[in-house]
UniProtKB/TrEMBL annotation:
Keywords: Cytochrome c-type biogenesis, Membrane, Transmembrane, Transmembrane helix. The chain crosses the membrane at residues 439-456, 468-487, 507-525, 537-558, 578-598, 610-628, 648-668, 680-703, 715-733, 745-766, 786-803, 810-830, 850-868. GO terms for cellular component: plasma membrane. It is a multi-pass membrane protein. It comes from Paludisphaera borealis. Pfam families: Cytochrom_C_asm. PANTHER family: CYTOCHROME B_B6 PROTEIN-RELATED (PTHR30071:SF1), HEME EXPORTER PROTEIN C (PTHR30071). This is Cytochrome c biogenesis protein CcsA. GO terms for biological process: cytochrome complex assembly.
């Protein structure tokens, strides 16, 4: 077989399979979801699409119902479409968010028995289910034969039930028998296969905690009371809850949200129900507010739901004012004026339950027009009746009546959602351009990889094919850019602010800026590397944005401190764009490291020599992962503090994983150098396995032991390694000398770092001017500011080293990757790990730390492996 034939096969193999793998990975987002071929999509008809445009207020912003429903379903269920499973464990129906939220209140008796509340912490799920499962095992022991009965009695008497013990008992009883099937089902519940519980189980199951028997709602209430007493008891300290108590509070919030939407009842202090109608701003409502507040201050009076809600809304307004300005409506003209402006502009809307369940006369006394209220109440009751009669298939006329009645009622009160704005946001939700961008970037990356190593000589047929492949790759890159630009155009028009107010927006903006900068460099120099690096980094960033649960894609109301578009665009956009330039520089550095990994040196090291870090790191990684997985901890480890055990295990796993990756990448680079075709095939297999793992974790489509053994960080790691090997297999067949390629890539990296430093300096200077205007000082030495300064200085070092000639070409390429870790700390670490300082508008709980740390380790390991192989080859 000739060399040209081999290269052509490798090129098209990498193109075809990488395209398919990347498309699957892009579709793996829990926000997009994968549905089985036979799943019934409930609520996908035109009637629910129209209902999805109904304006509601949610999280401080007026938005269409489909946005609110998707966000709430994702909070409760873990993804935006609910997949119901049959007795055989196979999906029977996939409920769209709007239909699910409507059906919750129409048929609560059905949904209370469905496993829809996400419980992704195995020890908490075991605690919730252990008492009931133990009782079922005892009941099975009473009807079984002596041998199996004694086995089940001994199992029920164990201090802790384990999935493996239940499955062993099922095998002993006979897996085809009724007892065996029951035990297998119990093992699946207590194990890691099923991550959801039904609301009825959470509401009724008795659990054993600290020697007491109590229900989950009562236990969660005690935890919240403990937290509140510690916070407001005078010490001011945040309570030290155990890890399982923290997870219990998160689960309680999901459960209470479902209850509020199911019953249209929620606490007046924090309404969780649908907020569907604006509040009146006229004097009638102000008078009713004062009367409700005064009535609530009397100890012998009980407030109606409407009175309680109105009184708490007045309290919320009072808390936004200095105490010296406090008054009641009707007592002070200036206060009444401010209260009226607040009601018409920023007050929360009335909950649906209050509007539906209150007396019509009482609603009229509060200032709501009686005729429009009656029409809305009747139309919504008709909607629920129609949903109850035909779940997921309401007539379009019933929905139109609700929308018309809500619009008439809202328009009569003043502030109401504009139908054009609601349709625009619905269009953004349906088209999902940010979810489609990874597929375009993946296609561009695959085509550019396929064209790598060939000359676009239009005088030959092969050259024409190469030019066509390269051109299509550029089209894929530009298509990804166009999709993201369209998405940002819609988001900016909807939110009316610059497109970098949340962590999700900064990540997708960085992807867009990286791809655009790579395209610009490619159009100037036509070396293929800029487009390749830009599409690769943009693909990784968009996949992270769509799959990381800590990155909330919803459009949110921004804090008052950010509500200055001129400063927001002038300060935040340059900072985030500098991160994009640094990410592109890192992409060039990774390509240069890939060239070093696959280059042919004077001395070819042995595989045994290269595998030394692997042999040391693998045992450490296995030990660390064993300690991180709570389902497989030994009893001696369970006696240790869970938080410190997690920290220690994470450190051991990170060290072992880094060494393992260094040795593994070294061996893979040697494989790509010796046999590019085999390396490409292996890379495709690994990338496919990683994509399948991401799909399994994100969508729950895989059941059984494999699903419980998979972790999202493992799936990402395997996919990254596979992708890296595919790239190395293409870099191993150069048309020019490796030294020249590395010089070119290092030069591009140097230019990208220069652009990043300039943008970072500009953003920091403008931020200091904004801080002087808002906070009264240019600099406060808080973590966000300090890490921006650190990042600036970190990147100055390689630039000065290159300028003075004291840094080698490989050192410059490696530094572009190593220095990016400071960007990760500034961008991710401060917001998710530290969460302190005056930049608290960007802070978020959670953080998907394992995925981010896995990606960081993989990036560093590529450079470490290149340095290791170079050192072994030159010694």
């Amino acid at each position: 077989m000739t060399r040209s034939t081999t290269l052509r096969r490798i090129r098209w193999l990498s193109f075809g399979l990488v395209s398919a793998i990347a498309a699957v990975a892009a579709l793996s987002s829990p926000r997009v979801g994968l549905r089985g071929a036979h799943d019934a999509r409930v609520g996908s008809g035109r009637a629910y699409a129209l209902l999805g445009d109904l304006p509601v207020e949610h999280r401080g912003r007026v938005k269409p119902l489909n946005s609110m429903a998707a966000e709430e379903v994702e909070r409760i269920y873990g993804r935006s479409a609910i997949k119901l499973l049959g007795p055989d464990g196979k999906a029977t129906a996939s409920w769209e968010p709007v239909a699910a939220v409507l059906d919750w209140s129409a048929r609560p008796e059905f949904w209370d028995d469905q496993d829809i509340i996400l419980v992704d912490y195995p020890p908490l799920k075991r605690l919730l289910l252990e008492a009931s499962i133990r009782e079922q095992v005892r009941s099975l022991a009473g009807v079984e034969t002596s041998v199996v009965g004694k086995l089940l009695q001994a199992l029920a008497a164990q201090p802790e039930l384990a999935e493996a013990d239940l499955r062993a008992a099922a095998h002993q009883a006979g897996e085809a028998s009724t007892t065996g099937k029951t035990l297998d089902a119990l093992a699946a519940k207590i194990g890691g296969d099923l991550k959801w519980l039904s609301p009825r189980v959470l509401e009724k199951t008795q659990l054993q905690h600290e020697g007491r028997t109590l229900t989950f709602p009562r236990w969660a209430g005690e935890i919240l009371d403990k937290k509140d007493r510690t916070r407001f008891g005078g010490t001011g300290a945040v309570p030290e809850l155990t890890l399982i108590e923290e997870k219990a509070t998160e689960l309680a919030e999901q459960f209470f949200r479902y209850q509020a939407l199911r019953e249209h009842k929620s606490p007046a202090t924090k309404p969780l129900d649908l907020l569907v109608i604006p509040r009146p701003s006229a004097g009638t409502y102000a008078k009713y507010s004062a009367e409700s507040f005064e009535k609530g201050m009397k100890p012998d009076q009980t407030l109606s739901p409407l009175e309680a809600n109105v009184a708490n809304t007045l309290v919320e307004f009072l808390q936004s004012l200095p105490s010296k300005e406090w008054a009641l409506p009707g007592e002070d003209g200036m206060f009444d004026q401010k209260f009226g402006l607040w009601l018409g502009d920023r007050s929360p809307w009335l909950p649906l339950g209050v509007v539906i369940q209150s007396d019509e006369s009482e609603l009229s006394r509060a200032g709501l027009p009686l005729k429009q209220v009656v029409a809305f109440r009747k139309s919504y009751r008709d909607l629920e009746d129609a949903e109850r009669a035909e779940p997921g298939n309401v007539p379009e006329a019933v929905v139109v009546a609700v929308i018309t009645a809500a619009r008439d009622l809202g328009a009569s009160l003043g502030r109401y959602g504009d139908s054009t704005a609601m349709a625009r946001e619905s269009r953004l939700n349906r088209f999902a351009p940010f979810s489609k961008a990874p597929m375009a970037y993946a296609l561009g990356l695959a085509l550019l990889l396929a064209s790598l190593g060939t000359k676009a000589d239009l005088r030959t047929a092969a050259g024409k094919r190469s030019a066509a492949v390269y051109g299509l790759g550029m089209v894929g890159l530009m298509a990804g850019i166009a999709l993201q630009l369209y998405g940002f155009l819609l988001r900016s028009r909807i939110a009316r602010w610059g497109p970098v107010t949340t962590m999700y927006e900064t990540v997708v903006w960085a992807a867009l800026a990286t791809a655009t900068l790579g395209l610009a460099i490619e159009l100037l120099w036509r070396k293929k590397y800029a487009a390749l690096a830009g599409s690769g980094v943009a693909l990784l960033a968009t996949l992270l944005a769509e799959n990381a649960s800590c990155l909330d894609p919803s459009i949110q109301a921004i804090p008052l401190v950010l509500r200055t578009n001129r400063w927001l665009v002038g300060h935040v956009l340059p900072i985030v764009s500098s991160y994009a330039a640094f990410a592109l520089a890192m992409g060039f550095g990774l390509l240069a490291a890939g060239c070093c990994l696959t280059a042919t040196y004077r001395r070819s090291p042995s595989c045994r020599e290269l595998a030394w870090p692997l042999s040391l790191g693998m045992p450490l990684y296995v030990l660390g992962r064993f300690g991180l997985d709570p389902s497989y901890r030994l009893s001696p480890l369970s006696m240790l503090d869970a938080r410190w055990l997690e920290y220690a295990s994470s450190g051991v796993a990170a060290l072992g994983g880094g060494l393992t990756l260094v040795g593994g990448f070294s061996l893979l680079g040697e494989l790509a150098n010796r046999s590019p075709r085999r390396a490409c095939v292996l890379g495709v297999v690994l990338a496919a396995a990683g994509s399948a793992g991401v799909v399994a974790v994100a969508t729950g489509t895989v059941q059984g032991p494999l699903a419980s053994a998979l972790a999202s960080s493992d799936a990402w790691l395997v996919g990254l390694v596979g992708g890296a090997l595919i790239v190395m297999s293409r870099l191993a067949v150069p048309t020019r000398e490796p030294v020249a390629r590395i010089e070119t890539l290092a030069g591009f990296s140097f230019r990208a770092m220069q652009v990043g430093v300039l943008l970072l300096a500009a953003g920091a200077i403008l931020g200091a001017a904004w801080a002087r205007k808002v906070w009264g000082g240019y600099w406060r030495w808080e973590p966000k500011e300090v890490w921006v300064l650190i990042t600036f200085l970190v990147y100055l070092a390689p630039l000065l080293g290159r300028f003075t000639g004291r840094m080698s070409t490989f050192g410059l390429a490696a530094s572009s990757v190593v220095c990016f870790m400071s960007v990760l700390v500034s961008w991710y670490g401060v917001n998710f790990a530290l969460r302190v300082g005056m930049h608290n508008f960007g802070f978020t709980e959670g953080g998907d730390g394992r995925i981010v740390s896995t990606c960081a380790l993989a990036l560093l390991a590529v450079v470490g492996a290149a340095a290791w192989r170079r050192s072994r080859s030159q010694s």
